Amino acid sequence: MISCGAPQEFVPFGREYLQHHPGEVGLPSPNPMHQSPHLDLLRQLHTVSLKTSKEAWQVRQSKDGLMEEELYVSDSTVIWSRGQVGVEGARRVIKCFSCDSTVQQVLFATFHTYPEQPALLGEVLPDEPTGEELPSVCVVENDFINVYTEEGEDYAVALPFQVNKVWPLKYGVLLERNVPSSELASPKPENERIPTLYSLLHPLDEINPIIQRTGHSSIHQPSYTSDLSSQVVFTSNMPSVIIFYNSVVNSHSVWKIRRAKQDENTLVLNAAMANSMTGMPNIPSPSYSYSHTHSRLASSPVSPSTSALSPVPTPTRSRSSLLHPAQATPKAHHTPKSHMAMLSRTQSPSVFGAQHLRLGMSPSPCRSPLHRSPRSSSVSALLNDTCLEPEPLIPDLCIELLWKENTPGRASKAFFTEDSVGQRFLCLLLSRHSLLRCIKYDHTNNMSSIIFGSITSIPAKDAEHLSNLKMMLVVDGNSNLALYNGIVQVCRVHISGLPAFNSSLFRDFSSLNISSRLHSPATTPHRRSSVITSSRPPSAADAKFEVVGLSPVTHERSHIESFSDDPALPLSAAIVALLDPTNTHVTLEHASGSYFRIELPRVSSSPIVAQCLTALKYILPRDIAIQLVNKWYSTRNAPGNGDFSPYSEWHLFSKTLLDMMGYDIDKLTLSCPLECSGSCSPVAACKKFRAAENGSDSDWEYLLSSTYHMAAGNSLSEVLGLQPVGMLQREQGIRQGTANAEAPLFCHLPAILYTLHLVYEELKLNTLHWEMCGLLVAVLDQLAADLRVPIFLHHYWRDFPTLVPLHGPPTQVSPEQASRLTLPGYFTHEPPNVLVHIYTIMTGQEPDPFPYIPNVCSNTKNLILLYSVAATDCSLQDISVERFLQRISPTGHKPNTCNISMLTSRNQSDPNIHEKVVLLTDQLGLTERDIQLLPPGISLMLMNAQHLCRPSPPQDWPASAYHLIQRPDLVAHKKTMECGKQKNSGVNDPFNIKVTSLQKSEISPEMQKISQQVKEEEDGMESLDIDMLSLRWPEDQRIVEVQRMLSSSKPVTINIPQRPDVSDHDYVEEQERHLYALCIRTMALPVARGMFTLCTTAPVITETLPIPRLNLTGKAPPRGTSIDLSNIEVPPNMNMWPSFHNGVAAGLKIAPNCGEIDSTWIVYNKPKGSTEIPTEHPGFLMALGLTGHLRNLATVNMHDYLTRGHEMTCVGLLLGIAASKRGTMDVTTTKLLSVHLECLLPPTSTELDVPHTVQVAAILGVGLVYQDTAHRHMAEVLLQEIGRPPGPEMENSNDRESYSLAAGLALGLVMFGQGGEKAGFTDLNLAGELYHFIEGGHKKPLSGVHKDKYKSPSYQIKEGDRVNIDVTAPGATLALGMIYFGSANKAVAEWMVAPDTPFLLDQVRPDFLLLRTIALGLIMWEDVVPSSAWMESHVPPTVNTHVHRAGSQSTPGIDYESMHQAYCNILAGACMVLGLKFAGSANSEAFRVLYKYTRMFTNFTKRSVAELAGKSTIETCLNVILLSLSMVMAGTGDLEVLRIIRYLRSRVGPTNSTVGYGSHLAIHMALGFLFLGGGRFSLSTSNMAVAALLIACFPKFPTHSNDNRYHLQALRHLYVLAAEPRLLLPVDIDSGRLCQANVTIKFSETSQYPCQTVEMKAPCMLPELSKLCEVTIEGHLSENRYWPVSFSKNKKSWDVLRILLCAGDGIAVKLKDGRYAYKEVPSGLNVQLAPLVTKDKSARWTIKGSILEEVSGSATGLVRALVGSSSASRSGNGKSASVSIKNASINSSSSRTNSEEEEALTQTLATIIYEYLALGKPQTITNWVALIQGLRRVGMLTQWAALLVWQIKLMTRAAHFLHRLGTPQPMSSSSFLSTSTLSPEGMEEETDGSKREPEEGYRDKGHNSPLISPEQALSLHKRLESLIDSWYEEVESEVASCLRGEAGRQYTTRCALILTFHDLPSPHPIIASADADNPIALLLALQDQQLPPHTLASLTRILCPL
User: Fold this and answer.
1) Which of 168, 346, 1885, 1971 makes the best surface tag, with the fewest CB within 10 Å?
2) Which element (helix H / strand E) includes 576?
3) Residues paired with 850 in a beta bridge
């Protein structure tokens, strides 16, 4: 019998919560009317019911295993709650649902998205569910199933029939149709019946019938499940089965649930069609199936509300949603996001065309019209009119018969269970017969089916499976609780604290019908659970109380009838049912009607017990293993046993195990740990005797000889700082016991010894389990002694000489019994030693495979594999496990062999050894925590591999491998790559770090000014990244100045003094004229502000986007008088286009990666309250298009915008949509643009009055949509539109230049870089036609659909029959340059060369020379060179001769004005080409050239050259050159350019008449380019980027704010298409803050520039990625402070860099341990000398702790902890260093510690710190500290001294092993490393005995050197050797006796440590017979034993002393 915890009264949480629930919430009527007061009273009385509410609940374990979830239903209310088990107040409500009608059932279910539907013809669907999981709660009502997912989505599925019950499946849910009694009374033939089972795979799917199949042969054809006598008993997800009970034949059957196959569906449908043809209409069709879905209100726990359903379903064959009727209750509508894309995935045109056919909806014929609700009637009427030709339903699932057997009755419960050894059973509870039938089953080899076996019956009234225990709790026939392990009874379960039940008293109470509790809470002897929220309702004690609804609460029997007339039944007889099982919890139903929650105790709490149990269950036969588990569980949890410590639990387990092996436990001499309680404790054994008042020496002697002193004496001495006291051997009588050979485990004693020995070796590989090794070794020593295997005894004594004697304890197994024991085949006579095995591998030998037990010896298996792979350097493609490991298999089982295969995705050569080790470590599942728990000598090789791979790991490793090498920055990059693959675009949060805002003290005063100005007033620049700006420009106020220059929301200051002769009226007019001049500049600011704030914010979707005010007023100081333009004449609507630009600037702030911008939010930003749309909103629409968000605009909203006919709206919308669809050739967008273009409409179409600007936007939009596609038809149309004539009426009469230019630019976009000779375009003669438009000539006949329209000339414009080149030349020139971009076509280029004679120059407009020069540069793109010579080469010699020679030097007949104009325009065009070529590059040569010409033209404005060339020409050319200069320096914020811009924008007033709106627009665009995107963006030079910049910076600027004659102003914003984020922002992965880092950029080789490398300080603007081949952060610099991060072209990391730059959240970097960040370096001489200290290779042996403390950076605290603080030591503060290891070591021996030892230890720790700081080896800290502590404990002879000696030996061996791994010599995969050992002198010793020094080269490699050098290892090895040598004289004879095998002598711990250190063998006959005077004979005798040379030397020294 076992006892469980105190029972806790269980009351459903939902019951108490329901008391506070408001109930049904009545919504007010939409049309309130006057009502009588008594109606409200009647309504309240209507809610009162005298009936008892129906309640039900179910409890399940949550996914995390820590909490339980409860689903409670009462009437129409469902409460879903979750809480931690056994914690008061930890339960909370997740959701509360109120339904319209009574809830019939509620259940948990999991649906899937099933993205593969519909399946292609013939495609095989996977048997497992596919897609994302949708965990849900299903609420079943009369007519609907309401599905609520955990993500917040909700669905309503209409039920086409009455449902008996809904069952959860692996694929979704199963619906069991309720068969009416009339149908049962007169059943139809089977082929005419309606199916009874249906499936629902997704809430948006149809409810489809399920087919069945009873066999695979041809005679077993699939059919619908229409057996009326079969009822569902149970369904299961794992395995996926369903159990039926047939009431006619009294049989249970088990069926497998799987996906239906296409051929099965075809057979079923064919049969159904055949039946319908013969007059049998009852096939699955719309006659009984309909479905609909709609959104429902998800009620919250705070304010639950009812959900009124009044849907109007429409016929559907797919997942679709329904519209809500107007009279429905208002509710929050939403559409599930993850399923909208699959709304039409199930449509199919025919029955056999696809697997999934859907159908319309119709009312159910199974239900009488009298029972239909009004809603059902309306649905029926609608469906009868719509569904005329139904299609059959295609089944989704098929059930397949697996097993069938007759039973005496129907099972009331069924479940699957598994016992502790893995045997599986299906349990059927026959409650009426009090039987539990257990059917054994197992899976087939391919896991595709289930095989059932024997059947066992257990007397039981109820039973439940407890998954964590792998046991069953059973209420047997006597109403007692029993625990079963499979079909074997474990024990009875005793429960204390339950109330006794008196049936006669209960009857008395029930007859009185008293609604009160039988037991008062005050007298209840048990505590209440956390799930108790209230007492039971009064009706719960009534005998008539009925619980209806959810199983398992619903039960059939009465509580009273199940008890006898005994007035006082025993406690166990009061339990009537088991409910709600979870892991270890179950609910007991008491006869009184109460429920109690109990927790069954665990099998074990100690890791060693659990591990031993697992190993023994694996190795022993199943029946024996079950006996062991049952015995142990009953013993551990027997009544009276409380909580166990790991030690006491092991002691009890060992006694139980030995007892089952036949040992006489009372006569064993096992050592007992301190925590154990029991007979082995002297205190417990003698506490019945009264203690004597006076002590004696015998008490002390008893204590020294006790097992307590043996187990813990040395440990206590170590803690207290005392000298260890040895054991006192007392003469005592040996209690000889005898083993029982009939015990169940006696014959398995050898197997148990070997198994526990392997567990023992496994525990050695975890430092936390070393104490458990000491517990296990006593049992192993006893077993080894009884089996007479002295080699095992010697092994255990060497490991724990303080715990076990050499010759073992007294035996209980006689020699005869031992001889009859059969050793298993895997038993070896040499005990496996994992430490020796690993040591042997590192010496270069290949030992025999090491044995291991699967799932038990995981560390053993993993480490031996890792060391073997490192030693053999074998390929990771196929690692032969059986070569290195031997899997132990139980007797009768065939050993399994397996290989580990790891496919690497690297395109390079095979990884090196260290990379292999890290990759294999990752694949084996070892984490960083696991490696830290390994012993220091074992973990060294793994840490070394991580250390060597950390600086530059391969770029294609998984994230878990980067975790291993402690590179969280690379983990972040890996996650970024995964997010980028999922989204196929920029990501919003590329890695899981957030940029932390800097503190106010860390921000420079300049940046604080910016922040303060932002807070004062929102001017559209409040989204600036202050943290980034403070790092990029920390020393000046350039951002403050830019913000001041671009602010347009505040009135400008009019500071004009009033002269004495000016009247007040004239003074006001003068002020307003000055204001007007300033307003011209103000109106040009929004374009630049949009560039400055490009993509700097993410909007709040619940708010509209704020648009800053464009303020055109002023104020006059000192009183701040407001001034407006009311007294002077200004152009009408002059702020129309500036307002448009203002809207664009506001919209461009939204970043493209904001994924929540949808059509609703876009329309939400439309201004309300006015019919006229403000011009800001059209600009906002265009901005959304430029950033890609306008593609989310719904077609309905798009149509609404365009039908308003607002000119600006059409312009913004058309350009925005075209920009968002650029290069896609989208048909819908093409149609939208064609409506606004006559050239794309048929000739018979209706003429539309489309504004000219809209036509310009549409024609350029065509170019954007078809950019870079070389679409022939579009190219032909656009070519004709360049020369489109005016008329014949007023069409195309005004601003023709802009339309022609737009057509030319669009043609250039379509054919950019294609050349006119492209296949399919030869007949168009593009070059010739365009040249005709450039040079002029007679018009050619029109062609196309509209040629007849232009036969008659225009009545408005008379231009004759010649081409008007003033209209066509600009567009044709640029189109020609764009088409032949980069082609170097000299023939075409000659057309663009400026004329070289004065006469020809006079024939070309000077501004056309600028365009020709640009086109020439585009054609000869590769020849563009940033030099003044290249610039001047474009100027004809004639122009150079006569320029600057006016006046007295003038030549007659020369037009010097034309010459100067030509000169200026040609230079400006060349500068424009240079700006386009080097845009965003910050090329120093290009900057120098452009800066030179900018200064030159700036000076021209002040000289007479301006008079010769014209001030307007000089101004235009200056603007073009300034724009070109800013394009080159885009995003750099260059101060020189900023100064020029600030000067040029200051030219305001009447003295600067030529500086108009266009000049200010160009100047401020240059300012915007300079700080593009707030310093985050730069410009690209890709083909489309060059085209976009050419369009945006077209060198013809408007003369006033509404000027669109030559160029549409909206096109100025197309620079966005050329902008790209290239700011490299390092982010510290630990702090989350921006930081500085060194960046090395390597350029790709070009013809002009060979391989170049540039070093920069990040944050910095990177050059174009297409021009780079590698970007390295903190790469090869010797003083780097962060771990290097490299991005290489043509590798996956390049995509990571691109995604990170696009996201703009920074690139993660990891600060090295012990380093300062660049901005945090303190001042001081030692800090400045730190690099010199770390570079000094000899400093490691001489450096002082005080110096380390000053140069240790972020590791100062660690330095103080290890070596102490010099200041603290000088001040005498001893407590400050008490936590350090040094003081802990020194204080251990108190006053006896001398200064030399202290100094040596301090220097050793300083050396460790040096390695940590200088070479970046933080792993050495833990290893070195552990080994130094271990060396001290070895000297104190502690319990684990032998294991610590092994760690020092392994570390010494590993140091040389790692050195050999690091050498570049090739290694064979078929052999181990060359055999070598370590000599006592530290040199590597070959097998032939020769010695050699370690190879040079590894010492000075920094991070590439091994983790521990051989010199360091040798120093520690020598310290241990000197310690052991100091014992030699004392134990010399003892060691020799031990080697000779002399018995009858006690051997000390020091003897064992000497044997372990020198690798001395066990006693051997050769050694025993050795002659002490003849060492040579001894060596000859031992030469065949394969002992290493140093062992032979030690043996000779000991056995043959001189």
Assistant:
1) 1971
2) strand 575-579
3) 885
**In angstroms, rounded to a whole number, what is the distance separating the alpha carbons of residues 925 and 913?**
19
Tell me the DSSP string of 1239-1298: GGS-TTSPP----HHHHHHHHHHHHHHTTTS--HHHHHHHHHHHTPPP-SSSTT-SSHHH
Closest by Cα among 1257, 1342, 1248 to 1298: 1257
User: What digits encode the pLDDT tens for the residues 23-35?
Assistant: 665 544 444 444 4
Rounded distance between C-alpha atoms, residue 916 and residue 896, angstroms: 25
1124 closest CA partner among 1068, 1178, 1080: 1068
Give the Cα separation of 669 and 660 in Å (integer): 17
What is the spatial distance between Cα 1166 and Cα 1200, in angstroms, rounded to a whole number? 12
- What distance in Å separates the CA atoms of residue 1483 and residue 1496, rounded to the nearest whole number? 20
Would you state the pLDDT for residue 30? Answer: 44
At 777-820, the pLDDT tens digits run 999 999 999 999 999 999 999 999 988 888 888 888 998 988 88
Q: Phi/psi at 821 (nearest 5 deg)?
A: -75, 135
Distance of CA 1992 to the CA centre of its chain: 57
Of the given ranges (309-318, 1049-1058, 1162-1171, 1596-1605), which has the lowest mean pLDDT?
309-318
Task: Give the N- to C-terminal CA distance of the chain in Å, as an integer.
Answer: 68
For 1728-1748, write each residue's pLDDT tens digit: 444 545 555 555 555 555 555
Q: Over the chain, what is the mean pLDDT?
A: 77
- pTM greater than the 0.85 cutoff: no
- The residue behind tokens 């060391």 is 867
Q: Which CA distances in Å does 889 have to 595, 629, 840?
A: 47, 20, 25
Contact 1364, 1299 (CB under 8 A): no
Cβ neighbors of 1429 (< 8 A, separation 6 or more) are: none
Q: Which pLDDT score is estimated for 1071?
A: 85
pLDDT at 363 over 50: no
In DSSP notation, 1092-1139 reads HTTT-B---TTSPPP-------EEETTTTEEE-SSSS---TTTTHHHH
* HSE-CB of 1724 using CA atoms within 13 angstroms: 12
Determine the Cα–Cα distance for residues 1059 and 148; give it in Å rounded to an integer.
79
Asked if 1401 contacts 1459 with a C-beta cutoff of 8 angstroms, the reply is yes
Helix (H, G, I), strand (E, B) or coil at 392: coil
Beta strands in 1460-1586 (DSSP E): 1577-1579
What are the φ/ψ torsions at residue 48 (nearest 5 degrees)?
A: -85, 130
Length of the chain: 2002
Residue whose pair of structure tokens reads 């080789």 in the numeric block: 1645
Q: Report the range of poorest mean pLDDT among 755-759, 855-859, 1465-1469, 1501-1505.
A: 1501-1505
Q: Is 1110:1163 a contact under the CB 8 Å cutoff?
A: no
Give the closest residue to 313 by CA, choosing from 385, 372, 370. 385
Residue type, 572: S
In terms of C-beta distances under 8 Å and separation of at least 24 residues, what long-range contacts does 1294-1298 make, across chains too? 1294/1252, 1295/1252, 1295/1253, 1295/1256, 1295/1604, 1295/1605, 1296/1367, 1297/1366, 1297/1367, 1297/1370, 1297/1605, 1297/1606, 1298/1252, 1298/1253, 1298/1256, 1298/1604, 1298/1605, 1298/1606, 1298/1607, 1298/1608
SS3 138: strand
**Looking at per-residue confidence, does 526 or 1271 come out higher?**
1271
SS (H, E, C) 1075-1094: HHHHHHHHCCHHHHHHHHCC
How confident is residue 169, by pLDDT bands cut at 50, 70 and 90?
very high
Burial tier of 640 (Cβ tally within 10 Å: 0-12, 13-18, 19+):
exposed
Under the phi-then-psi rule, with left for phi > 0, alpha for psi from -120 to 50, and beta for the rest, what region is 1634?
A: beta
pLDDT value at position 555? 37
Give tens-digit pLDDT for 967-1026. 898 888 888 777 765 554 433 333 333 333 344 445 555 555 555 554 445 778 888 888
